[in-house]
Design brief:
The structure is a homodimer. By secondary structure, the first copy, chain A, is of the alpha/beta class. Chain A has one domain (about 5-195): NAD(P)-binding Rossmann-like Domain (Rossmann fold, 3-Layer(aba) Sandwich), CATH 3.40.50.720. Chain A has helices at about 10-20, 35-40, 70-75, 110-115, 130-135, 150-165, 180-195; strands at about 5, 25-30, 45-50, 60, 85, 120-125, 135-140, 140, 145-150, 170, 200-205. In chain A, the strands form two sheets. An eight-stranded mixed sheet of chain A has the order 3-2-1-4-5-6-9-10, sandwiched between helices. In chain A, strands 7-8 form a two-stranded antiparallel sheet. In chain A, helix 2 (about 35-40) links the parallel strand 2 and strand 3 (about 45-50). Chain A is globular and about 40 Å long. The two termini of chain A are about 30 Å apart. At the A-B interface, helix 7 and strand 11 of A face helix 7 and strand 11 of B.
């Protein structure tokens, strides 16, 4: 059985919890407070706790706001060794909404891998609106979760959970492709903000 | 009546010709030779000629291979003044298939705008596989054509043709967003090459 820890039970974190539970994983939810984690975890039968607790997941999904990522990486640095670390962030410059705050030649996920070289970093879920993870569909198509990463086993483990949950897991290539996934996530957010698309829709992937 | 010139009757150029004709435009097709342009134009009732001929389109779609763009920009530099110039390119590094050959902080479309400041440059069609422009659908959804550009009138003119053709025209924002559109086009090509998606599918946009 795959064990998944989701740190950050916000909108996208809670959606990933739902996917992981449907995907048959043993799920732990950690929040800034245990109460916040409980709200996301308890209805789905997941365990919960506060940031700082021991990680039970082999796959750890970091779904805290982007400006809180560094602190978590510092706090759990040793614990992340060998674990699969999933970056779901869209590092948008919210002051301008006209670009990302990571260097153009890189990505948040690649930066995370540099900070925690002992972890096996994946980029995933950042191209999905939360509602489409909960529902599992975009229009009549299964929601596609694009996963980029350099470690094939790590990627297969996450794709397995996603597929068991009934979503379409797509291997999006190496961790370098996180740059393109972050561009997609950003563009999709701008289209949502400008009401060109709804938050229950977005970019779907059609076979 | 909108007049559209398509330079480069290859796979994507021919698909844009079909969209423009369905979109009610007066269409001219220019090829390296008149014979090549004729094959794409004649069955659809478009006029045709060879590169070097006078442009009849107010909207000019540049659909030549990326390494031939510079020559065309030089050749038609004066003629492009005031015209809408549509960049459909995906400037992929085909030697590595691991990135783009334009600077990470820019895009082919922004570079084109710098080269021809008197033209009104748009990025469009680069996120569409040719088959989905011909068919007009991805699965059961109308094919979405994402259009980025700084000139609102230029964008509306192209979106009008696209929508009249029965496709979904989406305003993707300023020309800076060409960077994200090129990331999407590139990622989609890598997924196609790796057979994660078919050439009749790809990324769809769901309302």
């Amino acid at each position: 059985m795959v064990a998944v820890t989701v740190i950050g039970p916000g909108s996208i974190g809670s959606a990933v919890v739902a996917v992981a539970v449907r995907g048959g994983a043993d799920v732990q939810v950690l929040g800034r407070t245990e109460a916040k984690a409980r709200a996301a975890a308890e209805p789905l039968g997941a365990s919960f706790g506060a940031v700082g607790d021991t990680l039970t997941g082999d796959i750890v999904v970091l779904a805290v706001p982007f400006d809180a990522v560094e602190e978590i990486l510092g706090q759990y640095h040793a614990a992340f060794r060998g674990r699969v670390l999933v970056d779901v962030s869209n590092p948008v410059d919210f002051a301008t909404f006209d670009g990302l705050i990571v260097p153009a030649y890189s990505s948040a996920a690649q930066a995370m891998q540099s900070t925690v070289p002992e972890a096996r970093v994946l980029k995933a879920f950042n191209t999905n609106f939360a509602a489409t993870l909960h529902s599992g569909v975009i229009a009549d198509q299964p929601t596609a979760v694009l996963v980029a990463g350099d470690d094939a086993d790590a990627k297969e483990a996450l794709l397995g959970v996603v597929r068991t949950a009934g979503l379409r897991g797509v291997d999006a290539g190496s961790l370098k492709r996180a740059r393109e996934l972050e561009a997609i996530g950003f563009l999709q957010l701008t289209l949502g903000m400008r009401e060109e698309i709804s938050w229950t829709g977005g970019l779907g992937l059609v076979a």
